[in-house]
Amino acid sequence: MVPNKNKRAAIIYFPGRVDLKKLRSAVESVTTVSFWEPSLWLKTEASDTGAQQALRAIAQKATHIVVAGGDGTVRSVLEAVALSGAKVTVGIVPVGTGNVLARNLGIPLEDIRTQVQRALLGNAHWLDMGLARIILEDDTRVEMMFAVMAGMGFDAKVMLNTDPVRKRKLGWIAYAESGFKQLPMIYQKLSIQVDGRESRTVRVLTLLIGNVGWLPGNLSMMPDASLDDGLLDVAVIGPRRIWDWIDFWTRVTVGNNVVRTTRAGRKLLDATANVKTLENLTSKKIRVRPEDLVELQIDGDAVGLIKEVEFESVPRAVSVRS
Ligand SMILES: [Mg+2]
């Protein structure tokens, strides 16, 4: 048999958290049988969290990137691939417990063989990403892309306060829990402008801008978010009183999983939604100007205090296999 000259896998992996032996055998069971070119194995470093590895893979003519890592590694790889414009597909082998993108793509969280098969042989489909144009506290401008969601205010502060081990062990949902116990509830005044329309000022605890909607534990603050509709979903969250919180938690759990599945339930939830609990919007572009400096997180990594940020959907940014 002649080697399959067209296909080459590059595996970008987070060394401490991957069972390399199992991963290798799963990859080889696909690439050897199909006579692919020899695979590239690129591990992430503390200073190089995936982007450089993705560019190296592209330079060495990889056609299929597999990223075995957590949300941060996945974000770095997807951003680099999206910006490169290279014709390469990305598959995800979820590691750790957050894995918000993998969950939303329906990738199984156990069973490395199935994960690898889907990453290499699954159907390729386009995925939107979010782009954040950020003005930092010191007026530096940075651009970052995200696959899952960005959060401002309380949500971002929780990311700063949760220690890495806990973050790794429990995933995103740990943040909320640790946050409620340790952090004072500070409500921020934000001026938000959606798709160039008139700005509106809201007082919120947190503002979430999502590319995907479902969080671990079947929680959703944006149940209608779709990965490929060219839109970002916005959740404006500002409960103040205990009954608002009860309403909020009911909405994100039972509300979206049970009530929302019927048309009447959906109507009821939408009609009673407002910023005192949870209000959902969709937009192509949303600009946020906080009255005071506010914390920002992107796919679970704290960015720091910012002066202003504009979020835009980048439709069909990357091709993903799942
Ligand atoms: Mg969308």
TrEMBL record:
GO molecular function, a single term: ATP binding
Gene3D superfamilies for this protein: 2.60.200.40, Probable inorganic polyphosphate/atp-NAD kinase, domain 1
Matches recorded under Pfam families: DAGK_cat (PF00781), YegS_C (PF19279)
Gene Ontology cellular-component terms listed: plasma membrane
Domain (DAGKc) ranges: 1-138
SUPFAM superfamilies reported for this sequence: NAD kinase/diacylglycerol kinase-like (SSF111331)
Keywords of this entry: ATP-binding, Kinase, Nucleotide-binding, Transferase
InterPro entries found in the cross-reference section: ATP-NAD_kinase_N, Diacylglycerol_kinase_cat_dom, Lipid_Phosphate_FormReg, NAD/diacylglycerol_kinase_sf, YegS/DAGK_C
Entry-linked PANTHER family: LIPID KINASE YEGS (PTHR12358:SF106), SPHINGOSINE KINASE (PTHR12358)
Annotated protein name in UniProt: Unannotated protein
